[in-house]
Amino acid sequence: LITEVRLRRILDSRGNPTVEADVSTESGGFGRGAAPSGASTGEYEAIELPAEEAIANARELAVPRLEGQVYAGDQRSVDYVLREADGTDDFSEIGANSAVAISMAAAKAGADMLGAPLYQHLGGAFRGNQFPTPLGNVIGGAEHAADATDIQEFLAAPVGAPSVADAVFANAAVHGAARDILAERGEAAAKGDEGAWAPSIDDAEAFDVMAEAVSQVAEEVGFEIRFGLDVAATELYEDGTYVYSDTERTPDEQVDYIADLVEQYDLVYVEDPLDENDYEGFAALTEKVGASGHPGEDCLVCGDDLFVTNVERLEEGIEEGAANSILVKPNQIGTLSEAFDAIELAREHGYDAVVSHRSGETEDTTIAHLAVATAAPFIKTGAVGGERTAKLNELIRIEENA
Ligand code: PGA
Ligand code: ZN
Does the annotation count 288 as an active-site position? Predict the structure, then answer.
């Protein structure tokens, strides 16, 4: 039984306050979870409140319904109580930041009581033995850095790595190679919010640098490394057109542009290539690049802002054939149970579920466990930087012990 839920303000990686929750149980179990925070958030995400407000409201409305009343190991009940206590569809009362911190802390307390690692508690005995390939953010811009690329993220994908550890080090190597290639080209590169290089170059040059960095490192390590993108196209979309630094594209042109990029660079992954309301465009692109029905041959077309980890949004997408994968960010929906629901629905319909961090992060490692527990094909959690390596290093430990 949960005996205490403590909430506090802690720092996130951008230096902003975020919510941390500690859950303690009668039998001595303990779990801690912290909410991440997005910068290029989707319109349909659950609401993040200012940390102080989220904490005050959760203390008043949710904590009394949890303490002494719910078992930490009973994740569905914990998350149901959070929903009931909040009473809205979008967690605008207690904040999705308080909700997700408590939800994750309860899961960890549940695992602690069992003496089991979190992934085992979340995934049980039937998860199989697949480990996620980390997608490493190497070059980026848009909402994550000023005066850099239009495309938000260029992501290394070490699909041929024999282990998670090899993949993690390969991504770091691609990140390092990209820095050196940029330096050779005279491009000073600061880092964006997720630790990706944020040089003042256009997308075309970023593709060049990325392709070179990936092939250099692939040669060194001796396994296949491809790459992918998070276009975060909602941020480019204005009054019916995609506005790039040097050009504009109509929705049809955007579909063709992305399909050409997939072809030209053999991209393995494209996230949010179109606006978050354009199910039709997503369907058209998926038809072009992701619809052979043979897993492993296609490009993953992934909905982040499109689906926002929301079962109803995903149902709509499935009906229209929009995308073939969903990005899963627990704080977009507010609870682990609902993140699991989205993953399950995706699975049933042949969509891959990719687990992801946010641009604002903490040392919390829940998503590493979630990705392993659900046998996600990919996890997006950056390449370097402490709040990113917290997850990557946890994956290395999990693989060693699993
Ligand atoms: P965000 O960006 O966390 O700032 O929303 C990450 C993403 O778009 O995937
Ligand atoms: Zn995204």
Answer: no
ipTM value greater than 0.90: yes
Task: Give tens-digit pLDDT for 305-355.
Answer: 999 999 999 999 999 999 999 999 999 999 999 999 999 999 999 999 999
Whether the Cβ atoms of residue 230 and residue 185 lie closer than 8 Å to each other: no
pLDDT at 294 over 70: no
Residue type, 293: G
194 is catalytic: yes
In the block, residue with structure tokens 């990113």: 388
Residue 260 has pLDDT above 90, yes or no: yes
Mutate which of 16, 40, 41, 307 to test ligand 1's pocket (most atoms within 8 Å of Cβ)?
40
108-132 residues labelled b (16+ CB within 10 A) or e (exposed): bbbbbbeeebbbbbbbeeeeeeebb
Question: Max alpha carbon distance in the chain (Å)?
Answer: 62
Cβ contact 176:220 at 8 Å: no
* Closest C-alpha among 43, 45, 11 to residue 361: 11
Residue 160 Cα to ligand 2 midpoint, Å, equals 24
Query: How much is the pTM?
Result: 0.97
**Distance (Å, rounded) from C-alpha 147 to C-alpha 300?**
28
Mean pLDDT for the stretch of residues 136-159: 95
Beta bridge partners of 11: 17
Q: In the structure, what pLDDT confidence band is assigned to residue 292 with cuts at 50, 70 and 90?
A: low
Q: Which amino acid is at 69?
A: Q
Contacts of 314 (CB under 8 A, 6+ apart): 303, 307, 326, 342, 345, 346, 351
